[in-house]
Design a protein that fits this description.
Blueprint: H1 3-26, H2 32-67
Length: 69
């Protein structure tokens, strides 16, 4: 591996790390109402995803049982 390849990888990683930090700071300017609304929306989404996961788990168990017959 050449030094230039390694240097490019390090630069790319540093750019990604600095970009992630600025994304977190961008949300810091939200009002409490906006944050509360986002939290409520995310909690609803998590609840929906959990329900979907449970349905898929039951369906997988059902089809595994059917294939075993």
């Amino acid at each position: 591996m050449s030094h230039e390849t390694l240097r490019n990888w390090v630069r790319k990683q540093e750019q990604q790390a600095s970009g992630a930090g600025s994304a977190v700071q961008a949300g810091a300017g939200l009002s409490m109402a906006d944050k509360d609304a986002e939290i409520a929306q995310l909690r609803a989404e998590v609840a929906e995803l959990r329900q979907e996961k449970e349905i898929l788990r039951k369906a997988a168990a059902y089809f595994a049982k059917e294939m075993g017959r």
